[in-house]
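ok so for the tutorial part 2 we go from a plain amino acid sequence to predicted structure tokens. step 1 is just haveing the sequence, like this:
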Amino acid sequence: MAEKEPVLLTILIDTRRMRWLAGGIGFDKQVFPLLASQDDDLAGYRSMEFDEQASFLRHRFCGALQRGCDRLWGLRKKAFQFVFLTDSVFPGAPDELTDRIADHLAQWMTNPPVVFFSSDAGSFDVSPVAVTRLAGDISAEFSTAFDAGLPALLEAATQTDQWEQVPLPKVQSR
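step 2 — the prediction. this is what the tokens look like for a chain of 174 residues:
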């Protein structure tokens, strides 16, 4: 069986539209738009207490990673690093919620490892996007691939037809 091509599974967090996008970045600058949640998929945290907000968002992002890994596998690719990039802090929540999510994911997901970045401009609209690492680590080789592929992945994020749309989860009644 042939080896799977290594990629960075990258989760873009769009806080203005309250959605996430999962895509791959290859070491050759090639990007793979995979999945995009519906607008307001992340909005459920807003009515919750702080600990519940963190739990809700961790659950959503772990689901995004699982689905992204499944799609990469079908393309004969494998995530060698998980990368999260948020455009801003989560609106309507304490600023430390973003740090809490970043720390949790980086501490609990080690294979592949997680690195969590935030856009310095508070938006993906500024080019080039400058980022600050909030948690986790990334090797120099993976960082170079991320920096090289990020502009193309952000450009693809503006093109809805390139992403498989993930429906909003059904609300279960108790």
